[in-house]
């Protein structure tokens, strides 16, 4: 990685809190609490004071069976479901939010974190919205700071916390963005006057040639050969 890139050691932070509920049993994602610890370390590296966790209003989904249940439908999984405690970031930091989906549809609303979803047992993680290829949020900040998050699913529950610190947040899923956009990274940064870029990937994706090629494609505007 280029020396100008600031790396953030989230792994050590997770290890310090390993006895807390940071990952689901039946879904590959980290919980909102795990995502918060990641946000806290990244915010410090960016020079921001992280918003204290106890300032956020909490929401609850009592039973969540997650991706494992959606995939295999084993009723045994329902005997010991997960739960979700999430943080209503929008209550503290309101914004206008635009979501763009791979089927060509768009939606504008005022939430990055929803208070409830239909069928929370199977789709509780959709409190962060349906998985689209790109979202942006325009907050009430006037500091001129604009963040681009290049992410996989790890960024879904982490990105909303940055509404405290940036005037604009642009969230691009590296798996889909290039397929549904005419932008390379350079053109996107220039057009949107981005000041900060955060690359946030789960370890399984960061070591994947397929996912790395997604990033190369976004960087270069064309599909890259395997490196």
Number of strands: 8
- Helicity, as a percent range: 25-40%
Largest sheet: 6 strands, mixed
User: Which series of helices and strands comes N to C?
Assistant: HHEHEHEEHEEEHEHH
User: Are there runs of 5+ residues with pLDDT below 50, and where?
Assistant: 222-227
- Assembly classification: single chain
What is the strand content?
A: 15-25%
Strand order of the largest sheet: 4-3-5-7-6-8
Distance between the termini: 14 Å
Report the C-alpha radius of gyration, rounded: 17 Å
Protein structure class: alpha/beta
What is the overall pLDDT average?
89
The outline comes out as: globular
With helices defined by DSSP (H or I, 4 residues minimum), what is the helix count?
8
Kindly summarize this structure in a few lines.
This protein is of the alpha/beta class.
Task: Give me the secondary-structure topology.
Layout: H1 10-16, H2 32-46, E1 58-64, H3 66-72, E2 82-87, H4 89-92, E3 95-100, E4 106-109, H5 120-123, E5 134-139, E6 146-151, E7 168-173, H6 185-192, E8 196-200, H7 203-206, H8 209-220
Parallel strand pairs: 6-7, 6-8
Antiparallel strand pairs: 1-2, 3-4, 3-5, 5-7
């Amino acid at each position: 990685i280029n020396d100008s890139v600031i790396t953030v050691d989230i792994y050590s932070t997770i290890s310090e809190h390993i006895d807390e509920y940071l990952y689901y049993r039946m879904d590959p994602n980290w919980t909102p609490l795990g995502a918060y610890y990641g946000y806290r370390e990244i915010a410090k590296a960016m020079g921001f004071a992280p918003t204290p966790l106890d300032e956020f209003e909490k929401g609850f989904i009592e039973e969540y069976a997650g991706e494992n249940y959606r995939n295999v439908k084993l009723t045994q999984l329902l005997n010991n479901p997960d739960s979700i405690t999430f943080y209503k970031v929008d209550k503290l930091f309101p914004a206008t939010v635009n979501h763009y989906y791979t089927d060509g549809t768009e939606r504008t609303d005022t939430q990055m974190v929803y208070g409830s979803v239909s069928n929370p047992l199977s789709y509780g993680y959709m409190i962060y919205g349906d998985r689209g290829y790109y979202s942006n949020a325009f907050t009430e900040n006037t500091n001129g700071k604009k963040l681009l998050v290049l992410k996989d699913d790890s960024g879904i529950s982490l990105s909303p916390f940055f509404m405290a610190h940036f005037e604009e947040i642009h969230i691009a899923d590296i798996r889909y963005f290039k397929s549904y956009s005419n932008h390379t990274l350079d053109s996107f940064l220039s057009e949107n006057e981005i000041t900060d870029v955060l690359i946030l990937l789960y370890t399984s994706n960061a070591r994947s040639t397929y996912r790395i090629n997604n990033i190369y494609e976004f960087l270069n505007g064309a599909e890259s050969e395997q490196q």
